[in-house]
Amino acid sequence: MAFSDLIRSLLVGTPWGETFPPRPAPPPPARDGRTAALETLRLFLSELTFYRRGDKNATLIPFSVDIDRIFVEWPDHEEQNGKEMPRVALISGGPVDYQSVGLGSWIDERTIDQFGRNTAIQVQSQYVETIFVDMICATKQERRAMLNGIVTALNPTELMYGIRFKMPDYYNEVVTFAVEKATINEDEDSTKGRRTARIELTMYFHQVALVNAEPLRPAVTVLTDFDPDAPDGEAVLYVPEGEEDLNAADIAAASITPTSNEAP
C-alpha cells in the first residue's frame, strides 16, 4: 500500500509489506472473505437432501433446493426470486465485529511464497458476523424438513461444534459456521403457501491481507589467507588485529584452520 510522503511521515511504525527498493503491493483477492464464505455455504446447502412427509401414512419424499434458488442476500426485484419453492437467502443479522488476534496483527509464516513470490499472509483480525438462513417453503412439512436437515447438517464432523470450510477464493482461510437459534414464523402469509423460518448462525474467520515479504538472507564475510608452511597451501582464517578473541566454535564451524593471529 503506497502512502504519500506526508502520511508516511506521520505514521508510527513500519507499514506491513514495505520493502526496499519499493515495489507495488500484491493485488487483493477476487472475492472478499465474507462473499467467499457465503458462496461456500450456498453451495453446501444446495447439495443437501431433505425428507418431508406426504399424505397421511405416506412414505418420506426426498427433495432439495437448487443453487439458483439459494441467494446471498435477497435479490433486488421480486421477479428475480422466482416462484418455485422452497427458496433460501443468506442475509446479515447485524453489525460485524473485528476482534483482535492478540497484541497486534502478525504474519503467517506458513504462507510465505504460497500465493506469490516474496509474499505472505498478514492476519489482521477475527471477522465475526451473525448470518440468518431465511427460508420460504410451500408447506409445513417442507419447513420442518429443512429446519431439521440444515441444523443437523451443520454439525458433520468430529472436530468441533459447527462446520468449517476452506475458502480457495480467500487464501484457503478457514470459515466456521455455528448454529445459535432458529425461529418459526407464523403470519397471514402462512395460509398462502409461504411458510417461513430462520436459522441464526455465527460466522467467523481470519480477516487477512496479502503483503510483500522480503526474506531475510544472512551473509557472512570471512577473510582468508594461505599458510606457506602448510602442505598444499592450506587455507587459514585471517583475524584482524584486536579481534584475537574470535570464538573457537565459530572458527570450527567455518571449517578453516587458524594458524596465526597476525595479518600477512
Structure report:
By secondary structure, this protein is α+β, with helices and mostly antiparallel strands. The protein folds into two domains: 165 residues, no CATH class; 45 residues, no CATH class. It is 17% helix and 32% strand. The protein contains five helices and twelve strands. Strands 3, 4, 5, 6, 7, 8, 9 and 10 form an eight-stranded mixed sheet that branches. Strands 1-2 form a two-stranded antiparallel ribbon. It has a two-stranded antiparallel sheet with strand order 11-12. A hairpin with an 8-residue loop joins strand 11 and strand 12.
Derived from helix and strand composition plus strand pairing, the structural class reads: alpha+beta
Q: Output mean pLDDT.
A: 84
The largest sheet is: 8 strands, mixed
Strand-residue proportion: 25-35%
Amino- and carboxy-terminal Cα gap:
52 Å
Number of helices: 5
**Secondary-structure element series:** HHEEEHEEEEHEEEEEH
CA-atom Rg in angstroms: 31 Å
Number of strands: 12
Low-confidence stretches: 255-264
Number of domains: 2
**What gross morphology would you assign?**
elongated
Helix content: 10-25%
